[in-house]
Amino acid sequence: MSVSRQAGRLVASSPVIADAHFLAEADPYHPERNPNGYINLGTAENRLAWDLLAPQLHAPRRVTAEDTRYAPLHGTAALLEVIARLLSRCWHTDVDPEHLVVVSGATAALDVIASVLCDPGEAIVVPAPYYAAFETDLCGRSGACLIPVPSASCDGFRLDPAAVDRVLSDARRDGRVVRAITITSPGNPVGHVYAPDTLRALAEVARRHGVDLISDEVYAHSVFGPDRFVSIRHPLVQSAHSSQTHVVWGFAKDFALPGLKAGVLHAGNPEVSAAVRTLAYFAPLSTDTQFLLHALLTDTGWADSFIAENRRRLRMSHTSASRRLAEQGIPHIAVGAGFSLWIDLTGWLPTRTFSAEEALRRSILQDARVNILPGMAFGCAEPGWFRLCHTTDSALVQEGIARIGRLLAARGEGNRNG
């Protein structure tokens, strides 16, 4: 008996980000117990904040019978209310809890909104490089397909609304049905924080083409540089297109709780919101987890102090990793948000091809025993770029970068193809 075409497509689209993560996590490095183990710098997981979370998560909780029963599958009213207050402060606009849906992770939120907006074969335009799991999250169940908008290293891989406009126009001319534009904001993998003018121009492109705009803002509170985060729903950005603008957020990044699998979707209009609530039936968050998250956000003093301290630690971690990369002669793009560094290893490719990039990735993984992800996984148009995540123990990051540096030195001088 064979599986359905749908199941086969899901298996085939399993993201490399997951496979590499579990390989590295199965045999982790320890300086004494396992000095030849893997160092995982490929997973965007914040491991810098457990000491801040532990007292809250270990504190006694008064669990009632209601916390073990069925709850509204799109989120309890109490949780939606405190999330709305948090996002209202972040977005600088009033967020109606009725427009929010809580599901089991940002992945589920992306899957739900893509399934609501797209029929199989329709398209979503995505500026590249883009989050590596978008292929699975946006297309796996919906049957949609991605149309990338390439960006260039000479411009720092910046978001270009004019390029999005051109790609949309070309797709329409070719007879393709495009339903949405999707971005990560702040950017992932590069980490740019977008200016209001850029986001406003992008919203205008979406409005002019009559497509929805999806903004994945899971790093909204993880901005540590000088540029201020501006949501796609900020008053400086929003226009008459707001009813076709949808935002994904979650607790995995900004609150360092990826294992709780708690995602949030803000739908722009009642029709989409009703459909999203219906699909939340297939991806509910446990009642007990909702109770826990409600308790965290209700303590606004703790939540605010956590966000501030987490930003400080992210800035220190980014600075330390950047310094170590410079010592090894490895270029990267300077940014002010997120958990990763977009590093340039083009100088160590024997040829500027994606097969050479993949060979280098395998060598870093197998020979240096370090997991970092290649640009090809993120739809990058130029071979030789990699994402290196730094939000773990500083000693691990330092050792991982040193291992990469030694391997690159053995391959020859950097920038030999520059």
What would you say this structure looks like, in words?
The protein is α/β, with parallel strands linked by helices. It folds into two domains: 5-51 and 303-408, Aspartate Aminotransferase, domain 1, CATH 3.90.1150; 68-299, Type I PLP-dependent aspartate aminotransferase-like (Major domain) (Aspartate Aminotransferase, domain 2, 3-Layer(aba) Sandwich), CATH 3.40.640.10. The protein contains 13 helices and twelve strands. Helix 4 (77-91) crosses helix 10 (287-298). The protein is globular. Mean pLDDT is 93; it is low at 414-418.
List the helices and strands and how they pair.
Elements: H1 5-12, H2 16-25, E1 39-40, H3 50-58, H4 77-91, E2 100-103, H5 106-117, E3 123-127, H6 134-139, E4 145-149, H7 161-173, E5 178-184, H8 196-209, E6 212-216, E7 245-250, E8 263-266, H9 270-279, H10 287-298, H11 300-327, E9 340-344, H12 354-366, E10 370-371, E11 373-374, E12 385-389, H13 394-411
Parallel strand pairs: 1-10, 3-4, 3-5, 5-6, 6-7
Antiparallel strand pairs: 2-8, 7-8, 9-12, 11-12
Helix pairs in contact: 4-10, 5-9, 7-8, 11-13
CATH-level-2 architecture of the largest domain: 3-Layer(aba) Sandwich
Instruction: Kindly report the spatial arrangement of strands forming the biggest sheet.
Output: 2-8-7-6-5-3-4
Query: Which series of helices and strands comes N to C?
Result: HHEHHEHEHEHEHEEEHHHEHEEEH
Low-confidence stretches: 414-418
Question: What separation lies between the terminal Cα atoms?
Answer: 52 Å
Structural class: alpha/beta
* Tally of individual domains: 2
- Compute the number of strand runs: 12
Shape: globular
Which band does the percent of strand residues land in? 5-15%
Mean pLDDT, as a whole number?
A: 93
Helix content: 40-55%
The CATH homologous superfamily of the largest domain: Type I PLP-dependent aspartate aminotransferase-like (Major domain)
Largest sheet: 7 strands, mixed
State the CATH class of the largest domain: Alpha Beta
What CATH calls the topology of the largest domain is Aspartate Aminotransferase, domain 2
